[in-house]
Design a protein that fits this description.
Blueprint lengths: L1 E9 L5 E10 L4 E5 L6 H8 L7 E6 L2 E2 L8 H5 L2 E4 L11 H12 L3 H14 L15 H13 L5 E5 L7 H16 L3 E5 L3 H7 L2 E6 L2 E9 L2 E4 L4
Bound molecules: adenosine-5'-triphosphate.
The site of adenosine-5'-triphosphate has 12 residues, from helix 1.
Keywords: ATP-binding, Cell cycle, Cell division, Cell membrane, Membrane, Nucleotide-binding
Membrane topology: Peripheral membrane protein
GO biological process, one term: cell division
Length: 232
Amino acid sequence: MIHFNNVSKTYPGGFLALKNVSFELAAGEMAFLTGHSGAGKSTLLKLMSLMEKPTSGKIQINGSEISNIKYKDIPYARRKIGMIFQNHNLLMDRTIFDNVALPLVIEGYSHKETRKRVEAALDKVHLSDKLRCFPNMLSGGEQQRVGIARALVNKPLILLADEPTGNLDPKLSLDIIRLFEEFNDFGVTVLIATHDLGLIARMKYRTLTLKQGSMITDGIVEGLQVRHENNE
Ligand SMILES: Nc1ncnc2c1ncn2[C@@H]1O[C@H](COP(=O)(O)OP(=O)(O)OP(=O)(O)O)[C@@H](O)[C@H]1O
């Protein structure tokens, strides 16, 4: 589903944020991405979601080469990908309904179809009763779930989450991860960037670790040890 082949990213100004990164994530897989602050996690997610372009190397998403994609083709390619941000990027002056509806409005869905899909997405994250609320009327965990509903409302094949549990307590963090597992059970490929090593150790999913832009481990975290799977 996601295939990185020797991908490097140098930002304007010369900073090398990713160095020759190669890995594959199969369709329907769920994995964590970790590493210290500045290791390159957000950069890797931005390359997948076409917010940044790689400097060298090849990236395939769902069989399509996206490394040199034309500007006009980006919106179409992005439809396959749902992105969740740590600070959830909600529009504070719009209702929960309007926030979740936004991707569908941009794509030109009818009012009827939009209503149906938004209600279904909010039902999945257990927020049906908050349709008419504004974001500041919701708790941090609820706001994060609105961000998840918005990322999933147009049924993407891939869900990318950048520190989705960053501001939440352990119980709420686990609730959010359980929600991702539910979508993963329906076949959505999920990649979650997080600093939370405790969470990673509890969940026992494949974990990709970046250090100063290089992929240093790829395996299952057992306690504080990583069992290497693809590393020589
Ligand atoms: N737009 C940019 N221009 C220049 N340098 C950047 C840009 N974005 C990120 N960087 C640099 O690239 C490096 C990797 O940043 P990135 O945000 O990918 O790290 P991260 O692992 O997600 O960190 P954190 O956990 O703190 O969010 C950092 O040193 C950062 O300063």
